[in-house]
């Protein structure tokens, strides 16, 4: 049997409107639809960086006592928590960053860079 859900603890936590802090949560594996459907949304087409917000709102199934995880909840996470969740998403879905070599046009030094992944920044 495969593991489809992963528990996590946010570094800082989501603070709701009442001031309650939520740090413990669960993220499930992404489906093809989770990655394809957000690409059709106007918010993502207007700003590709918004993709991770939609993705996370689809795959996070629990965050403390928050009744419904939606893009607004993800938008209100602290940057450290967003980065943590993005890394977790990439790890559990086995998303690998593509690396390629490039050369500095000024000094001719060759080095590797990483191409952003679908769930990446």
Beta content comes to 25-35%
Radius of gyration: 17 Å
Largest beta-sheet characterization: 3 strands, antiparallel
- Count of β-strands: 5
Structural class: alpha+beta
Order of helices and strands: EEHHHEHHEE
Distance between the termini: 31 Å
> How helix-rich are the residues, as a percent range?
25-40%
Sum up the overall morphology in one term. Answer: globular
How many domains? 1
* Uncertain stretches of 5 or more adjacent residues: none
Major sheet: arrangement of strands: 1-2-3
Helix count equals 5
What is the subunit organization of this protein? Answer: single chain
- Mean pLDDT across all amino acids: 89
Outline the structure in words.
With 121 residues, this protein is α+β, with helices and mostly antiparallel strands. It has one domain. It has 5 helices and 5 strands; from the N terminus they run ββαααβααββ. It has helices at 32-36, 42-46, 51-59, 71-75, 79-92, and strands at residues 5-15, 21-28, 60-63, 98-103, 110-115. The chain has a 3-stranded antiparallel beta sheet. It has a two-stranded antiparallel ribbon with strand order 4-5.
What's the layout of helices and strands?
Elements: E1 5-15, E2 21-28, H1 32-36, H2 42-46, H3 51-59, E3 60-63, H4 71-75, H5 79-92, E4 98-103, E5 110-115
Antiparallel strand pairs: 1-2, 2-3, 4-5
């Amino acid at each position: 049997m495969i593991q489809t859900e992963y528990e996590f603890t946010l570094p800082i936590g989501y603070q709701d409107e009442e001031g309650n802090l939520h740090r413990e949560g669960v993220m499930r594996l992404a489906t093809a639809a989770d990655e394809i459907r957000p690409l059709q949304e106007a918010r993502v087409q207007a700003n590709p960086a918004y993709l991770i917000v939609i993705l996370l709102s689809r795959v996070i199934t629990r965050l403390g006592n928050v009744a419904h995880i939606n893009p607004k909840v993800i938008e209100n996470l602290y940057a450290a928590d967003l980065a943590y969740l993005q890394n977790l998403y990439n790890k559990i879905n086995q998303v690998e960053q593509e690396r390629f070599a490039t050369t500095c046009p000024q000094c001719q030094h060759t080095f590797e860079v990483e191409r952003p992944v679908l769930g990446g920044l």
